[in-house]
Specification:
By secondary structure, the chain is mainly α. It is 42% helix and 8% strand. Strands 4-8-7 form a three-stranded mixed sheet, with helices on one face. α1 packs parallel to α3.
């Protein structure tokens, strides 16, 4: 989040672990339904409990060419079995065509010697750390030695299921023809994410034979995997999957509206969703990163007052003192006290939250770090002051979700390049949305009430933020007031 004409941002190193479409559709908006119950997840109960393989269920009889019969392949084959059964049931009604499963499944080890490495889609699988769909022979393949184990270790077994659901999504959009050869890669990738989200809802509804997932931590982990596998450099022409914000949005469209919602994803819909949001680091030498200081926060407050006036504007304390507050508690590193209408910030601690952390050994980052992971928390505490000035209750799930939603409204407005300097010399940068989404998934502080309490569903927290970014303040008022 740089000052105007000063770039900033974080590049996460995912290395070779990218979900690609292998060798290898229309509505007027984002196809997102409105659910106003904060204790439900896109209309489903917010649940805890197991996530992953069901116990005492026979393994699938599917086989993979070159498979080794090990635990990773068993997990993958059970996933493909459930995915195929789902599409066998819903495909004809959703797309008015007969469903045909993929013709071939292939497992390989990316660590195999050159002499024993098999081919997938016309290329050697030696050092091919990937999973993909190949339209040439209508097949799906995966690396059982590095990619799938890394996904499982970092995000759990349901992340492996999500990877294969994404790849099967490519087979589905190819068979259904909701996208064609001339459509750009981003359309096909977003459709695949969306179709995977539709399948994950099927699992969340308890309808899958081999797997189950809860709608709190379990679903959070699946979304976190999508965040980790985002395109971190929007200027790289090889990156066609979309940002974390875009990937999670596509998954949520599928989870909320099902396969027909995925058919609404095309180039126009994606452009509409992107609107004025920054899409490039060009002329941004700092790649979006702007250190959090008292001075930068002061500039941000000018923008906050201009974008979303609070009426009774709060005062600001940058000392970090944990003063008593009769109507709230300390939510480090930023707290709002309605009793005194004061936002108190521990600037050094907030600055730590906004530091880019890059570990060369971390192929699948659990969290996208960077400045806006910190700034978004400050913004959200300001939105509590806005709610307070409007006479709203500052405790409870709807308060926290409205804080996230209004933070989305402000975030979108920070992207405007023609705002006068008097309204703050600070602008949104490409990648800031990804940092916000990651923070909303991990601790959810930017979606919490005055006491720091938030709903357990990262899906709901991100959904609220996204509603503000895409649909504006009225969406926040109608959903969460």
């Amino acid at each position: 989040m740089p000052k105007v004409r000063t770039p900033v941002f974080v590049t996460a190193l995912v290395g070779a672990l990218l979900l690609v479409g292998g060798c290898a559709q229309h509505v007027d908006s984002t196809a997102i339904s409105i659910y106003d119950d904060p204790f439900k997840v896109a209309g489903l109960p917010m649940t805890s409990g197991p996530s992953g393989p069901r116990s005492n269920v026979p393994d699938s009889t599917l086989t993979a060419v070159n498979g080794d019969g090990g635990a990773v392949d068993t997990l993958a084959l059970n996933a493909v079995d459930d995915i195929q059964n789902y599409w066998r049931g819903v495909f004809p009604e959703a797309f008015q065509k007969n469903f045909e499963p993929v013709d071939r499944l292939l497992s390989w080890s990316a660590t195999a010697p050159r002499a024993t490495a098999v081919e997938f889609c016309g290329q050697t699988t030696r050092r091919l750390v990937n999973a993909a769909y190949c339209p040439v022979d209508n097949s799906i393949g995966w690396d059982r030695s590095i990619l799938l184990p890394a996904m499982e270790k970092t995000f759990g077994k349901m992340a492996v299921v999500m990877v294969l659901a994404h790849e099967y999504g490519h087979a589905v959009h190819t068979l259904s023809q909701i996208s064609g050869r001339r459509d750009p890669g981003i359309v096909k990738e977003q459709q695949a994410d969306c179709l995977a989200g539709a399948f994950i809802r099927h699992v969340a509804e308890g309808k899958a034979e081999h797997f189950t997932i809860n709608t709190s931590e379990g679903l959070n982990s699946v979304l976190a995997a999508s965040v980790a596998l985002r395109d971190s450099d929007p200027d790289d022409p090889a990156n066609v999957h979309g940002s974390a914000f875009e990937r999670v949005t596509a998954v949520q469209i599928g989870f909320t509206d099902g396969p027909t919602g995925c058919a609404g994803i095309d180039e126009d819909e994606i452009d509409q969703r992107r609107a004025n949001l920054p899409q490039s680091f060009r002329d941004d030498g700092g790649r979006g990163e702007f250190p959090i200081t008292r001075e930068s926060l002061a500039e941000l407050t000018k923008a906050l007052h201009a974008i979303l006036p609070a009426g009774d504007e709060p005062s600001y304390d940058y000392s970090g003192n944990n003063r008593e507050c009769a109507n709230g508690v300390v939510t480090k590193p930023v707290s709002y006290c309605p009793d005194t209408n004061t936002i108190t910030t521990d600037v050094p601690r907030l600055a730590e939250r906004g530091v880019v952390e890059i570990d060369g050994s971390d192929l699948l980052p659990v969290e996208v770090t960077g400045d806006y992971n910190g700034y978004i928390v400050f913004v959200s505490r300001y939105t509590l002051a806005v709610q307070h000035s409007r006479g709203q209750d500052l405790s409870g799930a709807k308060t926290g979700l409205q804080a996230a939603c209004l933070s989305g409204v402000i975030t979108s407005e920070l992207a405007e390049s023609d705002r006068p300097i008097s309204q703050g010399d600070i602008r949104l940068s490409a990648g800031d949305l990804d940092e916000a989404v990651s923070g909303l998934l991990t601790d959810g502080l930017a979606a919490s009430d005055v006491r720091g309490q938030t709903v357990r569903s990262g899906f709901s927290r991100i959904d609220a933020f996204r509603a503000g970014v895409i649909n504006g303040e009225q969406a926040c008022m109608s959903r969460y007031s």
